[in-house]
Amino acid sequence: MSGDGPNEVSVRVEDRVVKLTNLEKEMYPEFGFTKGEVIDYYTRIAPVLLPHLKDRPVTLKRFPNGVDGKWFFEKNAAEHRPGWVRTMRLESPGSVKGNETVNYVMVDELATLVWLANLAALELHVPQWTVGPRGGKRDPDLLVFDLDPGAPASLVECCRVAELVRTVLDDDGVDAWAKTSGNKGLQVYAYAPAKDTSEYAKGVARRLAKEVPELVVSTMAKAQRPGKVLIDWSQNNPAKTTVAPYSLRARERPTVSAPVTWDEVEECQVVEDLVFTAGEVLERVSAAGDLFGS
């Protein structure tokens, strides 16, 4: 480690040198959680996070002045990036005939993760598909159901719906696992059981909305959502991304999109049962390892 200026320091991360700035800046003011602590969290969680980012182009949600300040999504890799940061130029989602491309960051090593954390990229979002070494987009390998509660429904009701989704998938011979969104909802994942994951997910969502209309909706119409849980199947659109497992979320506290066990889902009775901050997630991983995909 070496000092470069009053608010800068260079650190060695494996065989890279990363310049860090403004480590004392509070990213989560109400919690007193600094940029230095954000970097520390991502450094320590990297062994379980990096495998879930591998070969997936990352969309960043950056908060240069913390969660209370202005933020922006960033798909194109920053021009001032270090030369060792790997990028992949891919057709922009929604682009007509490939006329527009995006130069995505590929987070395949710890140094890149640390560099992004220093950019105040608090949230990392990824698609349900991967790319090959020469940039070829592969078919989706993951299926996701994003469960979003409409007040007064909450994470608790999302857990009940997650159990229903799991039962349907189990009937189809598909294993599922879950994680919190780190925000208000819950997400159920599975390895892609069909080539058209979007159509499959839509079918499951519509089936449950028909069978349990008092609890589930499958359409975005806000008028239908109060007190119910939206099964958002549209996250399987190849142009969409979902927050990565173990990513921080930009809430008042440094909550995390945390993998959870089905026992925890079934036992959840109050929202706080399944809300985990960065420190708590590190403790969970230390005790139980990576729960995502298991």
Question: Secondary-structure map with pairings?
Answer:
Elements: E1 2-5, E2 8-13, E3 16-21, E4 26-28, E5 33-34, H1 35-53, E6 57-62, E7 72-74, E8 87-91, E9 101-106, H2 110-118, E10 121-126, E11 142-149, H3 155-171, E12 176-180, E13 186-191, H4 197-211, E14 216-217, E15 229-232, E16 242-243, E17 259-260, H5 262-267, H6 278-288
Parallel strand pairs: 14-15
Antiparallel strand pairs: 1-2, 2-3, 4-5, 6-7, 6-9, 6-10, 8-9, 10-16, 11-13, 11-15, 12-13, 12-17
How would you characterize this protein structure?
The protein is an alpha+beta fold and about 290 residues long. Helix content is about 25%, strand content about 25%. The strands form 4 sheets. Strands 6, 7, 8, 9, 10 and 16 form a 6-stranded antiparallel β-sheet that branches. The longest helix is centred in the N-terminal third of the chain and has 19 residues, at about 35-55. It starts with a strand and ends in a 6-residue tail after the last helix.
